[in-house]
């Protein structure tokens, strides 16, 4: 039943996407499946050296192919790949996140409407339907991390961090030197470099690390404060980091706040 509901939800999402929308499929193994032959003509390639936070398989959806995708969903088991996917309205200077689908979870913006009957069935079958807090938190973190100078320092105030599934990976980047960061006190310090930035991006997307980033800060290697975060949701950002105003406005709707330091 869960698979059928996932497919029904995906069809409802895709059928409401505006023209020239983009689907990001995180599971790149879809390229090795015969299913990919059905959609490969609509794939978009990006220059990852200039946009490191974009990874996955990107498919464009427009008026000419939206019915093709709906037919594929109705007749082929594509949902096994789309249970880790994101949906964007592609504007001139901003990709607006409209929805994100994870295993057992639909995150939906106020521009996508799921039927009340469908939502009730999801609740009865342990599938959650929520707002866009989770994907927007991830998207915000990715925007910030992608702009950090080399050898920045992530300082986390959490004595429960060892319970995070990403802890062992983070420990590879630990810095044991003592720091005096403007009287802030933190329990963990990690280096963010050009070499390990992709690892951080992967942890933000694919682990529970964001839920442990409750009180933390990021400093440059010259001890300049670049970011201070309170209660997981209040991001105080240096003018060295640029967050688009469209994203800030969208994030406020789910109680994620971005403001100047």
- The SSE string, one letter per element, is HEHEEHHEEEHEHEHEHHEEEHE
Low-confidence stretches: none
What is the overall silhouette?
Answer: elongated
Q: Mind telling me the C-alpha Rg?
A: 19 Å
Class inferred from helices and paired strands = alpha+beta
Number of continuous helical runs: 10
Instruction: Tell me, rounded to a whole number, the average pLDDT.
Output: 89
Beta-strand share of residues: 15-25%
N-C termini distance: 48 Å
Task: State the major sheet.
Answer: 7 strands, mixed
**Fraction in helix:** 25-40%
Feature tags:
10 helices, seven-stranded mixed sheet, six-stranded mixed sheet, alpha+beta, 13 strands
Structure characterization notes:
The chain has 261 residues and is α+β, with helices and mostly antiparallel strands. Helix content is 31%, strand content 23%. The chain has ten helices and 13 strands. The strands form two sheets. The protein has a seven-stranded mixed sheet, sandwiched between helices. Strands 9-8-10-11-12-13 form a six-stranded mixed sheet. α6 (133-145) runs antiparallel to α8. The mean pLDDT is 89.
Layout of strands and helices, then pairs:
Blueprint (H helix, E strand, L loop, with lengths): L1 H14 L5 E5 L10 H4 L3 E2 L12 E5 L4 H10 L3 H4 L2 E6 L4 E8 L2 E4 L7 H9 L3 E3 L2 H13 L6 E5 L10 H5 L16 E5 L4 H10 L2 H4 L3 E4 L5 E6 L3 E4 L7 H8 L4 E4 L1
Parallel strand pairs: 6-7, 12-13
Antiparallel strand pairs: 1-3, 1-4, 2-3, 4-5, 5-6, 8-9, 8-10, 10-11, 11-12
